[in-house]
């Protein structure tokens, strides 16, 4: 069977397939197309409706009462996993004097983190550095995991061949 080139130009110029034509019953009468097939009652293509743009939700905000070197940040939809890891990484920064996190209430999906720094940096800069350092750490762990998994699978295959 010869292979067919189905590039977008060819598909657009090709006549409609049976799936794209209006449905016809065995008696020859027009049948309403199924809902969601992109055709109206006459079998003509419906206009494409662009999906509504979703509102971007700000997931991190600075809480009131903050200064340059001392600030509290609220994270939406985060919990102990990010809070404790971020606190640990931020406290490793020698420019940070204090860092702690809390979950204000178990029924709310919020996590607050408080950062106080020495005069050499800002609390916002310490948070940004902490998030970047945590991302870098996760990349290293992920890389080592996949490498070890690949080595394990390779050893397993050679053991099965013997």
UniProtKB/TrEMBL annotation:
Recorded family membership: Belongs to the archaeal Rpo11/eukaryotic RPB11/RPC19 RNA polymerase subunit family.
Domain DNA-directed RNA polymerase RBP11-like dimerisation: 71-143
GO biological process, one term: transcription elongation by RNA polymerase I
Subcellular location: Nucleus
Region (Disordered): 1-40
PANTHER family reported for this sequence: DNA-DIRECTED RNA POLYMERASE I,II,III, DNA-DIRECTED RNA POLYMERASES I AND III SUBUNIT RPAC2
Record's GO cellular component terms: nuclear DNA-directed RNA polymerase complex; RNA polymerase I complex; RNA polymerase III complex
Protein name in UniProt: DNA-directed RNA polymerases I and III subunit RPAC2
InterPro entries: RBP11-like (IPR036603), RBP11-like_dimer (IPR009025), RNA_pol_Rpb11_13-16kDa_CS (IPR008193), RNAP_AC19 (IPR033898), Rpo11-like (IPR022905)
Keywords (A to Z) from UniProt: DNA-directed RNA polymerase, Nucleus, Transcription
Keyword Translocase belongs to the record: no
CDD domains assigned to the protein according to its UniProt record, in alphabetical order: RNAP_I_III_AC19
Entry GO MF terms: DNA binding; DNA-directed RNA polymerase activity; protein dimerization activity
């Amino acid at each position: 069977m010869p292979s067919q080139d189905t590039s977008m130009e060819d598909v657009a110029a090709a006549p409609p397939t049976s799936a794209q034509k209006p449905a016809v019953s065995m008696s020859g009468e027009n049948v309403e197309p199924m809902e969601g097939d992109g055709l109206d009652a006459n079998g003509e293509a419906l206009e494409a409706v662009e999906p509504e743009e979703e509102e971007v939700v700000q997931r991190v905000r600075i809480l009131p009462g903050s200064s340059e070197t001392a600030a509290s940040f609220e994270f939406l939809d985060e919990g102990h996993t990010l809070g404790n890891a971020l606190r640990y990484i931020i406290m490793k920064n020698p420019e940070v004097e204090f860092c702690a996190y809390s979950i204000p209430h178990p029924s709310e999906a919020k996590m607050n983190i408080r950062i106080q720094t020495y005069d050499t940096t800002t609390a916002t800069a310490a948070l940004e550095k902490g998030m970047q350092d945590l991302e870098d750490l996760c990349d290293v762990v992920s890389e080592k995991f996949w490498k070890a998994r690949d080595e394990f699978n390779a050893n397993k295959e050679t053991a099965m061949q013997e």
